[in-house]
Design a protein that fits this description.
The protein is of the alpha/beta class. The chain is built from eleven helices and nine strands. The chain has two domains: 142 residues, Rossmann fold (3-Layer(aba) Sandwich); 105 residues, Alpha-Beta Complex (UDP-galactose 4-epimerase, domain 1), CATH 3.90.25.10.
Length: 294
């Protein structure tokens, strides 16, 4: 039995589907089972609980051989960093250790470190340290930012709506954007590889990309130019949440190129290109049917 924490989210849902597709028994930790019908329909069992409730986690971890967690507070606007990303992850790790879980796959974030000035990265870093010290055979994945998130919010959605795009800074910093589908595959593969135990693996896409590259990819897919404006780092962006502006500002202060050729071959994951992601996103947003694979 594999416990998936975060199964109601997008990445956790992808992981759950991959596990079920290969015949695994999956238990999903949920807070509101009445809203999780797709999980039971897909074949998962539900464990009602919350990262902030240690007793519920002890019950959820009972009888499971492995835990995969993607849970984070980003979906709530970062409001629960302390209770979810810091204390909640510690509660889950402690429960897994007490119940003798044999493998723990923790999906963290690239740049996570206890000493980070960013609250989310600091909380993730503390959780990583606690997991390493717990004695549970563990694999830590540190994905760069997801193609399905910031590129869609910042560029894809306004471009499809015919609206201008606003970038913070010059949009030239290089980051290894990664698809959630790739991260899901790494997480599932990590369950079976004993040589992955103890590994902290940064995860990115096939090549580093800038925001300007993302704009160009959408322009190619849409067949037209996209109007782009630039604001200084730290400036307010009308209509954009402050948390998102802060994140975009931070991303303009460093580069995060990753060479994924080795991990890709080792874990058997074929990286999703930006072009393939943009095509799939645009087709889906327009409700178009993609050609059959045969």
């Amino acid at each position: 039995m594999i416990l998936v924490v975060g199964a109601t989210g997008r990445l956790g849902g992808l992981i759950t589907r991959l596990l079920l597709a290969r015949g695994e028994s999956v238990r999903a930790l949920v807070r509101n089972p009445s809203e999780c019908g797709w999980l039971t329909a897909a074949g998962a069992t539900l464990a009602v609980g919350d990262l902030r409730d240690p007793d519920s986690l002890a019950a959820a971890c009972s009888g499971v051989s492995a835990v995969i967690t993607t849970a984070n507070s980003l979906s709530s606007g970062g409001a629960d960093i302390e209770s979810v990303d810091r204390a909640g992850n510690r509660n889950l790790i402690d429960a897994a250790a007490e119940r003798g879980v044999e493998r723990f796959v923790f999906v963290s974030l690239l740049g996570a470190a206890a000493e980070s000035p960013m609250a989310l990265l600091s909380a993730k870093g503390e959780a990583e340290t606690h997991l390493r010290e717990s004695g549970i055979p563990a694999v830590i994945l540190q994905p760069d930012f997801f193609m399905e998130m910031l590129p869609v919010f910042v560029i894809g959605a306004p471009a499809l709506a015919g609206e201008p795009v606003t970038l913070v800074g010059e949009g030239r910093r290089m980051h290894s954007l990664v698809s959630m589908t790739d991260v899901a595959e790494y997480a599932v593969a990590a369950l079976d590889r004993d040589d992955a135990v103890g590994l902290t693996l940064p995860v990115g896409g096939p090549e580093p990309l800038s925001w300007r590259d993302v704009v160009a990819a959408f322009e190619r897919e849409l067949g037209r130019e996209i109007a782009v404006s630039y604001v200084p780092i730290g400036a307010e962006v009308p209509g954009m949440a402050p948390l998102l502006v802060d994140l975009l500002s931070v991303l303009e202060t460093y580069d995060s190129p990753l060479d994924m050729s080795g991990p890709s071959a080792r874990f058997g994951v074929k990286p999703t290109t930006l072009g393939d992601f943009v095509h799939t996103f645009v087709v889906g947003a327009r409700g178009e049917r993609q050609p059959s694979a045969g």
